[in-house]
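Table S5 (text form). Sequence records supplied for joint modeling of the two-component complex.
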Amino acid sequence: AFLIIWLSQLCYNWEKHILTFSFILLYVNSFVARSKTCGELRSAHIGQEVTLCGWIQYKRHEQFVVLRDFQGLTQILIPQVEVSAIENCFCSFLMQTGDIEVKAETAEVLNYCKKLPFEIKDFTKKTEALRMQYRYLDIRSIQMQYNLRLRSQVVMRMREYLCNCYDFVDVETPTLFKKTPGGAKEFVVPSREAGKFYSLPQSPQQFKQLLMVGGLDRYFQVARCYRDEGSKPDRQPEFTQIDIEMSFVDQDGILALIEGMLQYSWPKEKGLIKIPFPSITYDEALSTYGTDKPDTRFGMKIIDVSHILRNVDVAFLQNSLSEPHGTVKAICIPQGAKLQFKDLESLNELSKSQFNQCSALGKLRLKSAELLEAKGLLLRDPSAFHFLWVVEFPLFLPKEKNPEELEAAHHPFTAPHPLDEHLLYSDPSQVRGQHYDLVLNGNEIGGGSIRIHNAKQQRFILEKVLKEDTELLFHLLEALESGAPPHGGIALGLDRLICLLVGGSSIRDVIAFPKSFRGRDLMSNAPDYVDPQELEPYHVQVTWPLTEAKARTN
Amino acid sequence: AFLIIWLSQLCYNWEKHILTFSFILLYVNSFVARSKTCGELRSAHIGQEVTLCGWIQYKRHEQFVVLRDFQGLTQILIPQVEVSAIENCFCSFLMQTGDIEVKAETAEVLNYCKKLPFEIKDFTKKTEALRMQYRYLDIRSIQMQYNLRLRSQVVMRMREYLCNCYDFVDVETPTLFKKTPGGAKEFVVPSREAGKFYSLPQSPQQFKQLLMVGGLDRYFQVARCYRDEGSKPDRQPEFTQIDIEMSFVDQDGILALIEGMLQYSWPKEKGLIKIPFPSITYDEALSTYGTDKPDTRFGMKIIDVSHILRNVDVAFLQNSLSEPHGTVKAICIPQGAKLQFKDLESLNELSKSQFNQCSALGKLRLKSAELLEAKGLLLRDPSAFHFLWVVEFPLFLPKEKNPEELEAAHHPFTAPHPLDEHLLYSDPSQVRGQHYDLVLNGNEIGGGSIRIHNAKQQRFILEKVLKEDTELLFHLLEALESGAPPHGGIALGLDRLICLLVGGSSIRDVIAFPKSFRGRDLMSNAPDYVDPQELEPYHVQVTWPLTEAKARTN
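The corresponding structure-token record, covering 1108 residues in total, follows.
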């Protein structure tokens, strides 16, 4: 047996996560040079010849090295090898392989490592920009390894549930597509036909509906989606959604499917999740929590106290109550006495900035929770997972810029609530949609709807209610006329879900190579300038902003 | 129980494929309105109440309809429902549900179907353009349903093999990236920074190597890739590859992994495949088959007969043999006597057109096979799957335009053959690479290599041998210097593999929504013109070709 090692200065501590992966350890050494991983050896192996491959984690005195791979650490006794190049490093730590020591017969240095820009140690402080620039080093950290491996396993379990248990068909749909109506925020891709562009779609929405028309019955895809939101915190220009669509299904069917899928794929070490999830209507969510994505890990519900205060002789209360729809609402803050004057001041400031916004009370509720937690009270258990369905959204909302006109609350393909269909023609603003959002700990992690399968209804909504040009959707309308089945679906934001699962501070923590909030890849420096010649086949040229154009000619 | 039906004129015959999916039938009715599929009922079910959902396939007399879904057909007796809208249709066919008949208690028409542009029947001839325009109808065909479902199942099995059996990590890598050096054929995506573009990468090559540097050990991804090849037959601007990379692995390890994966995921109804696959060197492939992707389902090998003919007094033979490296080679055509004069003429024509090309004999071999098959001889069994590894490719090839200079035969990250490393510095054109191609029935379906993990060697090859600007690869070179492990991998072309598996005539037959050979989506009419305003945030404008610019101003 021989020992393969090489040099690096990274620090690992796999112990706390190792159990997660142990069920598949059996075959992890197939096809490669090692016979065991560095986390595998125990006293039962004493006497065996083994081959290990990994990075040198520590050197102790002149004879010992601690070898590290993605599974753990093993101490090696190397009587003859030159280890002088390796920095001495003392540390006291627990290794699961602590009972054994490998005596090297042969050791081979396979590669060298220059001085790294940062040490890969849990306690090393480094800016996110530096982590992004050297992402291939950042990925060596315990946390990133754990995040990426957990993500892979959760998605695999979802696939088993959908594909193997429930006969869903995994269909890949195009990402070079056509502009969606109203689809601002879509990246364009110039084609070789002058003036013609593909769009990178924000979701496979149209394709999945067309697949239902095509009789595919049960579709899913782990779909790459694109959205150009400029610089928004914690958004990515490309992101991933678990995209699902079924025929002959109603809202309850989709909800049960997703509950089952999340329960099936939930990592054991994160505890069991109870199904079915509770559900709340949009109206109730707004009145009780002041938001359509309530964090139900804690109470502090909003209570209407108008009836109590109606006869109290306080001017500002009476003023409020005398307004049309005027109410006075309250949040009862448990242990609120812990809040100090400056805390109350900051709550005051927040209220003023949110004046006349419906979401003001929701924000006050969250802010109060934050302030109490800063005092050491645990209101929102970070290890608890509170799922919540929000249902009965309005189908249309007044346009922000022109409240006389309506726009789709989610997208124009959502079917109206069966009880409200007649209102479509008389008072569309009152129609509820068969839309549902899935909320986890106050974060929207998915949404979907039962779709319109009737071409006439779809055309009415597009043309008469939304005043959209239907030409861009010609193919979809024609498809609905071709015997489209009733169908519905959902999409879960995978990045957000995994981020909540691992307790990450940003979705960038669960994406191998994320972009910065300005949409840049700091490692490779993308996007980058290209030679004007390379743009020629695409019939586009750059229109330089005036200042830059000047700078470039000087 | 009630029966849900609606109207369409499509024709289905699922019987021949139904066995493939029966192992997962148990749960296919969960979450939806039906209690059974239309392919499920047998005499054992007599007396049960059931709910079926589907399309009306046939109407018989005024009482019977045959309901169809993705699983099969069931005859329904409808005493009271209005079926006059449905065209009468006589047919004699076998149904697996032939022993039973469902007596409808309730029937509901859920949607109507207009006259379709073509009937979905096996024998309906339709142009591919029409199929593409109405792809959502084309997908209803037996063959397309089979192809898409088989594809989903094969990929799922591959995932099980990689993820569950061998602990690979499924990592999603970005598709908005930076231009690859020498990466012509890459689509560009304008960003909001003037003059800066993303590229849609042709493969996750750089990312997967960086993941190995990051200690991820075993990576795979079913990766969407992009290549702008203009109008090439049977290519797609976006396609899918099974992308794999491992650390501490050698060529034999990768080959064994892939053989195991294909055996594990191969559909039962396509027969067993034997592993290990045979392998052949590049040189041997060229000399024996005249191509680096030999179809080994038939013999007719190329034989060097120079030694026999050296003393034969025929002028054109002697002329050939007297040239430097001059040889005379032969193919023995079994039953060649069946070839007629015009066949021999066409072979003659082909030889002339291929004069002086090394691949001439390979093409003659294939053409001869074609001609013999046209006579009714079965040389290439379409149900046979002959895998072949081609190994020991040259690492570099002379550039077509300037044969004095060298270019990478595959890509610049391929490691040299260990026995040839010394030649890198003296005679690089003689260096073999650790590259391997996987060939199936004469089609290249995958390729990979052991990569260079030594930064110095990588820099030498890029700068000194290939004369490439290394600036674009700065991050990769820096990563190799940071303790990169020895690593290697492979990518399989999924579309091509599934196409061969189902015996499709084009990869378009195994892609749900493919582009035409000009890169157009004929259904939605993508790519399409966009409003110049929409290009403004991206700082690009269209440069109209002169003729078109004129036409647009007139």
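Note: Chain B touches chain A through 136 residues (CB under 8 Å).
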